Amino acid sequence: QVQLVESGGGLVQTGGSLRLSCAVSGRTISSYAMGWFRQAPGKEREFVAANNWSGGSTSYADSVKGRFTISRDNAKNTAYLQMNSLKPEDTAVYYCAARGYIGWAILTTPGPYDYWGQGTQVTVSS
Question: Side-chain half-sphere of 95: how many Cα atoms within 13 Å?
Answer without folding.
Answer: 19
